[in-house]
Design a protein that fits this description.
The chain is mainly alpha-helical and 51 residues long. Helices cover 75% and strands 0% of the residues.
């Protein structure tokens, strides 16, 4: 859900970084959410390989 929330925040934010609209936080949520999703997929794939 973090990538979706970050994307929505970036889509509706007025101004750029430092304006108080959460642009940096939205970008961080997007990036960290994508990293967490990738790590989750990797962990799930590794757990299925074990006997």
């Amino acid at each position: 859900m973090a990538p979706v929330g970050g994307t929505l925040n970036l889509a509706v934010a007025d101004g750029g970084p430092g304006t108080g609209n959460g642009v940096i936080g939205g970008a961080a949520a997007l990036v960290l959410g994508l990293i967490a999703t990738a790590l989750g997929w990797l962990a799930r794939a590794r757990s299925r390989r074990t006997n």
